[in-house]
Design goal:
By secondary structure, the protein is α+β, with helices and mostly antiparallel strands. It has a domain of 381 residues: Beta Polymerase, domain 2 (2-Layer Sandwich). It is 48% helix and 11% strand. The protein is built from 15 helices and 10 strands. Strands 1, 2, 3, 4, 5, 6, 7, 8, 9 and 10 form a 10-stranded mixed sheet that branches. Strand 6 and strand 7 form a beta hairpin. Helix 1 runs antiparallel to helix 2, helix 9 packs antiparallel against helix 10 and helix 9 crosses helix 11. It is found in: Cell membrane; Nucleus outer membrane. It comes from Fregetta grallaria. Keywords: Cell membrane, Coiled coil, Glycoprotein, Membrane, Nucleus, Signal, Transmembrane, Transmembrane helix. One of its GO terms (cellular component) is plasma membrane.
Length: 549
């Protein structure tokens, strides 16, 4: 703006200086043609006026441009300040949210066994039960007597027959194996629903596990996900088994890692105790070029050994034996000449240290279970301790306690619903886990036979709660309240709780199908039970209600 004013002043001064009247010519006389001079002066004045207007317009444009730039700069500055404030609030909100979420998860995992407010939870849960007609005591008792007890009476005789045949088969297996090179097979043990007396769905299948060990001088050294080494979340519940020499140090000797000179000898390991070559490690059922036991190799070895053993003793029996599943090591079926058949599973396992926890080579898979990380990863089974816990708690319960009855009814209802709408992510093992949690949470008198209806509702509500939260913790892993009488390994009690419903978080389609199947089962519960229930007169039902009152 000062430059513009200076230019205007310069034009005015120039006009004044050049005015003919102010500085006349040398002769000092006014020209005769005055009109011509006046006309020129007017033209000059008009040109100066136009120039002044042009300069004023330029000055105004410059001022407007300057104001616009200043305003834009202010807007940008305010935007930056607002963005900084917004970013700060966003970051602060995210930090607060993460802290709350971490606190919530830690609180739930740290108190998953706390049962102080469990009855309150049962009171506020059960949203899926609204409008559901739950069978009364008389209907449940009639259903249990006709449908459950009426179909499970032959289980004891079937167990005895299968165990006797399995012992004979394993004895023949030992005789056909090379004691110096093959695995050493021990006696079998019965586990699962058939030996816990709650199996209800046919066909009845006996589950037997067979511990085995390597030949001398080798031994198994196991490593679990909770042994201190880092295992990814999808490998929790698994472990690996390393085949080592019995006199080999766990950490390994330096002679295995360093080439010793020809004139040097390891004082711990003689030349006769050197590790077997790779081909012989494969003979020990290890994964190729490793010392880790391979589940697939074990399956092939066991199937071949069972086949040889049956060929040796088949002449003694009047039935045929065959493999019902080729992808399972010992899924066997006995076929009688009458056309009847009996199925049972004979599964090789490896003992974990000196406990009754076992690494199982092949585990029954479900739609919820993920594939094994590799064939060198073995799943851990606590079936022996589960059976012992049920036996131990049963001694403290009232006569004819209803805990097994609840599990049988729930297993039947879920199995019947799955046969109608297709399989879901729930398994019988999940249902048994629910029962184990409630057995530990509730006092003994709550399991009296007349409380069957209430306890069955508790199991359904507990399962509904677990499905809503996608959390059902393994009963033994991370449970510090396991009775000391069981002799359960402390390493698993101190481990982080293992969520059996973790795959639901990753597989939403399976989760939705499971929840829909559960709700459909609740809606169809009365119809499914009434289908197998003898008609009960109304007077008899009222009499039972009066007695209960």
């Amino acid at each position: 703006m000062p430059v513009g004013i200076f230019r205007v002043c310069l034009v005015v001064i120039t006009a004044i200086v050049n005015h003919p009247l102010l500085f006349p010519k040398e002769n000092g006389t006014v020209p005769e043609n005055a009109e011509e001079i006046i006309r020129k002066m007017k033209e000059r004045e008009e040109s100066l006026r136009l120039e002044q207007l042009r300069l004023e317009q330029e000055i105004a444009d410059q001022e407007a441009t300057q104001k616009a730039l200043e305003k834009a700069a202010e807007i940008v500055e305010e935007g930056k300040e607002e963005k900084v404030r917004w970013d700060m609030w966003t970051a602060l909100s995210m930090v607060i949210f993460l802290l709350i979420e971490l606190w919530r998860q830690d609180f739930q995992e740290g108190n998953w066994q706390d049962t102080g407010g469990e009855e309150d939870d049962m009171a506020v849960l059960g949203k899926a039960f609204k409008g559901v007609a739950f069978p009364d005591k008389a209907v449940l008792a009639s259903f249990y007597e006709k449908r459950i007890l009426g179909t499970t009476g032959d289980m004891a005789r079937m167990r005895e027959m299968v165990e006797g045949f399995a012992d004979d088969l394993l004895e023949a297996l030992r005789s056909v194996c090379n004691r110096d090179a093959d695995m050493e097979v021990e006696d079998c043990m019965g586990v699962g629903s058939m030996y816990e007396n709650w199996r209800v769905r046919k066909p009845f299948v006996c589950d037997l596990i067979v511990p085995f060990a390597p030949p001398e001088p080798y031994c198994f050294r196991s490593q679990t996900w909770c042994s201190g080494d880092s295992f990814p979340p999808d490998e929790q519940g698994y472990g690996t088994i390393k085949v080592c020499r019995a006199d080999e140090d766990v950490t390994g000797c330096i002679c295995d890692k360093t080439k010793l000179g020809e004139d040097m000898l390891c004082l711990l390991h003689s030349q006769a105790n050197t590790t077997r070559p790779s081909s012989e490690m494969e003979d020990l059922l290890c994964f190729k070029n490793t010392q880790y036991l391979d589940a697939d190799q074990v399956m092939k070895w066991f199937q071949i050994a069972v086949t040889k053993a049956w060929n040796r003793i088949s002449h003694k029996y009047e039935f045929d034996l065959s493999f019902s599943l080729l992808d399972s090591p010992g899924a066997l079926k006995i076929k009688f000449r009458s056309g009847k058949s009996i199925a049972f599973n004979l599964t090789p396992v490896v003992q974990y240290e000196n406990s009754d926890v076992y690494f199982i080579s092949h585990f029954p898979r479900s739609s919820l279970a993920a594939d094994l990380p590799s064939s060198t990863h073995w799943f851990l089974t606590f079936a022996v301790y589960e059976r012992r816990f049920i036996q131990l708690v049963s001694k403290t319960l009232p006569a004819n306690a209803c805990h097994v009855s609840c599990l049988q009814i729930l297993s039947f209802l879920h199995g019947k619903q799955c046969s109608l709408t297709g399989p879901s992510g729930l398994t019988n093992y999940h249902l048994k886990t629910v029962m184990l949690h409630l057995l530990q949470a509730r006092p003994s008198q709550d399991w009296a036979p007349e409380k069957l209806e209430a306890r069955l509702q508790d199991m359904l509500k507990f399962l509904e709660k677990c499905l809503q939260e996608k959390k059902l913790y393994h009963f033994f892993i991370g449970n510090g309240k396991v009775p000391a009488e069981l002799g359960f390994p402390i390493i698993f009690q101190r481990a982080e709780p293992l969520n059996l419903f973790r795959p639901f978080v990753l597989r939403r389609d399976v989760y939705r199908k499971t929840v829909d199947t559960f709700h459909e089962m609740l809606r169809n519960m009365s119809a499914l039970i009434n289908e197998y229930t003898v008609h009960i007169p109304l007077a008899h039902t009222n009499g039972i209600h009066k007695e209960s009152l």
